[in-house]
Amino acid sequence: MSAESKKAHNFIQSLIEDAIAKGEHTGKVVTRFPPEPNGYLHVGHAKSICLNFGIAQTFGGECNLRFDDTNPEKESQEYIDAIKQDVEWLGYEWADDVRYASDYFDQLYAFAEELIEKGKAYVCALNAEQMAEYRGSLKEPGKNSPYRDRPVEESLQLFRDMRDGKFQNGELVLRAKIDMASPNINLRDPILYRIRYADHHQTGSKWCIYPMYDFTHPISDALEGITHSLCTLEFEDHRPLYDWVLDNITVPCHPRQIEFARLNLNYTITSKRKLKRLVDEHVVDGWNDPRMPTISGMRRRGYTPESIRSFCDMIGVNKAGGTVDVGMLEYAIREDLNDRAPRAMCVMRPLKVTLTNYPADQTETLTLPVHPQKPEMGERDVTWSHTLYIDREDFEVEPPRKWKRLAPEQAVRLRGGYVMTCKEVVRDDSGEIVELKCEYDPNTLGVNPEGYKPNGVIHWVSANDSIETDINLYDRLFNHESPDSDKEGDFLDHLNPESLVVLKGARVEKSLAEPRTDLPYQFEREGYFFCDQELTAKAGKPVFNRTVTLRDSWGKGGK
After folding, report:
1. What is the pLDDT of residue 551?
2. Cα(394)–Cα(176) distance, rounded to whole angstroms?
3. How far is CA 534 from CA 120, 466, 518, 544, in A?
4. Helices (H), 379-514
5. What tens digit of pLDDT does each residue of 414-441 get?
6. The pTM is what?
7. Is 380 labelled as part of a ligand binding site?
8. Is residue 232 a known part of a binding site?
9. Other C-beta atoms lying within 10 Å of the C-beta of residue 491
10. 391 annotated to bind ligand
11. 242 known ligand binder
12. Catalytic positions, written as ranges
C-alpha cells in the first residue's frame, strides 16, 4: 500500500456532485481553510486542511487561506507564520494572497450599521451576569433585554460612540435582534460586537471594537465568494445564525455551510487551550515538541506530509462522531516509511565486543543496501573491525527459552557481516558487564556456517568509525485513552512518564555522519528515527527523534 491511498469518496463530495447535476450549483467551487491564529495547528486541523483543499482540487476550484483574527488579545504573528508553514508543508497552495477577516473590518462595521438601521440589531448595556440571566436555558426561554427596543437612531449613535472609544471594555455590546424564545440559544440575540482595547497584529490600534466570530465568519465567506463553507459539527447549531446574518444584509452571495465530524484521537489532546497549557506550564518543550499532536511537532518527530494526508483519507469524512485509534496514524507513517526510509544501524545502548581472532590493526569494508527491497536507492559502506558495539539488550548471560540473540558459547550473525560466537564475558568491579570477547568465523560472509547454526541476526557498528549520537525515544504523551474525560481529575494527571526517554552515547554507522533531514531512517530492528536539526546544531553531533516503533507495542499489552 502506498503512502497515499486512493482518495475516498465522501458525503460532501456527493452533495456537491448532486447539486451540480441538478443545476443548483454552477460555476467554480470555492472553499476556505479559516484558522484562528491563537495557537499552532494540530492533527485535527490537518483533516480540515485536507478536506477543504481536497474538495477544491476535486472540482477544479480553489481554496482560500483566511485567518479569522477577531480576538487580538490571544493572537500573534508567530501563530500566523506557523500556520502558513504547516499548510505549505502538507502540500497545499491557497488561492491568491493570504486573507484575514481583519481585511474586512470596515465592511463588517458597515454591515453592522445596516442591521441597526433595519431594526435588526441594538446596543445593549447588560453586563455579563445579567446577560446570562436573561438568556434563559435549554429548558426555559430567555427574556428580552430592557435595551432591546432602543430607537434605531440611539443604537446607531451609541455604536458609533463605541467605535470612537467613548466607552470602556464590557460597558456596551451590539446584539442581533432575533428571538429570545428560540429553542436554539445561538439565536437569542447573540452579541455581534464588543469593546476591546487591544492592538491588533494586522490593524494596530485602529479599532477598539471587534466583531464576534459568528458575525465575521459568514460575511467573510460571502465577500470572498465561498461556495461551500465546511465546518465541524459543533457549528451545526450555529448554522441558523450563519444564514440569518447573510439573509439580513446586502452581500454578493450566500455560501452553503456543511458540517462534518471533527477528528477525535485517543491518547491525544486536541484542544488548543489545553495544548497551550502544556506549553505555558513547560510540560513540553514548546508547540513543536515531538510529543505534541501539532503539525509542527509531528514534522519535527519525522512524520511526512504523505503519511498525514494518507491518514486523513483513511479515516474519511462523515457526520458521525466517534474516536479514531491513534494506531491508525502510526500505521500510516509506518506504511509510508517502510517503503521509502533508508536503512541504517544504530546501537542504542552500546556493549563493547572484541573479536579476539581478528587483527587489531585491520579493517575491511562491507557493503549493505540502503533499502533491501529498493536496489535503486543504492548501497552504503560499513566497517568491520577488531572492536565492535552491539546493543546491551541483545546479550543475556542466562537467556530465556527461544532466545534468538547472543549468549555465552552461542553464535549470532551480525547484520550484513560475519557470524561470531561469544567466548568470554568481562565484568567490572561492580559486576557490570563491560565487554564480550568473541570469535568471528571468516568463512561466513554472505554464507551459512558449516556444522552449526547462528542463533539469530543482530545489528552492530564498528568502534573505529561509528558516530556518537543522542537518541530521543518519544512515545505517546498520555497513558490514558481519553486523557480529558476524567471529570474529577485533570488531564495532566494522565501524562505518560515515559513519553520521552533520552539515550546518551548511542552509536550510529558512519553513513550517518551527515544524516539526511528530509526523511527518517529505519534503524534496523529499532524503529524509524528522524534527525532533529535544532538539537543537532546545539549538540554538535547528530540527535535523532524516534518517529514510531517498528510495531505497535501498545495494542499488544506493551504498556
Report:
1. 87
2. 70
3. 55, 22, 14, 11
4. none
5. 999 999 999 999 999 999 999 999 999 9
6. 0.93
7. no
8. yes
9. 18
10. no
11. no
12. 36, 262, 272
